[in-house]
Each structure stands twice: as structure tokens, then as C-alpha cells.
Design a protein that fits this description.
Blueprint: H1 2-14, E1 21-24, E2 30-36, E3 40-45, E4 48-53, E5 58-64, E6 67-76, E7 79-87, E8 99-106, E9 112-118, E10 121-131
Antiparallel strand pairs: 1-2, 1-10, 2-3, 3-4, 5-6, 6-7, 7-8, 8-9, 9-10
Length: 133
């Protein structure tokens, strides 16, 4: 009986939602998510590609001139949680955020929901699923 419970717990820890597919963004552009099991997510859109390593450790995901974006990603239940940090370099960031959290999840129709958390406020974005992989 202990073996069965341990096996169920291990399976539950390894289960994660599959975000793979094509989605339409707010500019009507199509982007693709390619997920490798529960450890990597590749975000491919025209002109850019980001690799998100899902291990809870901070990794660089984007660099443009002096601006560098880092993310620590983990699956938590049905959410992909990213703790984001932006290093603005010598640029004046003004009121732009330096640290924030982004949650991704799939709604019941398979659309990708993005929730950007900025302290006491948040922004929701919905990316419509165009097709599965």
C-alpha cells in the first residue's frame, strides 16, 4: 500500500499542463510554444525566441542592448509561475517594474491566460489558441 501511495505522489509531482501549441497575441501575430516535458518551454514568435528553463532557478531569457530579463520558472498546480527580474543597465527605468511575477495557465477552451502581478495590481492577457502543435 505504501508503494502505491508513493507512486501516486511521484506521478502527481511530475504532472504539468502542456502549453504546446500556436496562439494569437494582442497584435494578431501568431506565436508558438514548444514544451519539453515539465522542464523547458520554448516561446517562438516572429523575430525572437526565448527558452524558459523550468527548474526554479533564475536564468537569462532575453537580452537587448543593456537590458537583460531574467526568470525563475516553476510549475505550481496548473500554473506556470515566472518570477521576473529586469536589469535596465545604465538606462533610466523610471517607473517601469524591476521585479514582478507572471502566471500562465490554460482556460477550459485551451487558450493561454497570462496574469502579470505588479504588487497590488495585475493585468490579464488572453492569447487565443489557434491550433495544437
Amino acid at each position: 500500500m505504501t508503494y502505491l501511495i508513493l507512486m501516486f505522489m511521484t506521478f502527481s509531482l511530475l504532472a504539468c499542463p502542456d502549453f504546446s501549441g500556436h496562439y494569437r497575441d494582442e497584435d494578431n501575430e501568431i506565436f508558438e510554444l514548444k514544451q519539453s516535458d515539465c522542464t523547458k518551454l520554448e516561446w517562438v514568435q516572429p523575430g525572437s525566441q526565448k527558452l524558459i528553463i523550468i527548474d526554479g532557478k533564475e536564468h537569462e531569457i532575453e537580452r537587448e542592448d543593456e537590458v537583460v530579463i531574467y526568470a525563475a520558472a516553476l510549475f505550481e498546480n496548473q500554473f506556470l509561475k515566472l518570477q521576473m527580474r529586469i536589469d535596465w543597465g545604465s538606462q533610466d527605468s523610471g517607473d517601469l517594474p524591476k521585479n514582478f511575477i507572471v502566471d500562465y495557465y490554460l482556460d477550459r477552451k485551451g487558450n493561454l491566460i497570462e496574469k502579470q502581478n505588479f504588487g497590488q495590481s495585475y493585468q490579464l492577457n488572453t492569447y487565443l489558441r489557434v491550433s495544437n502543435q
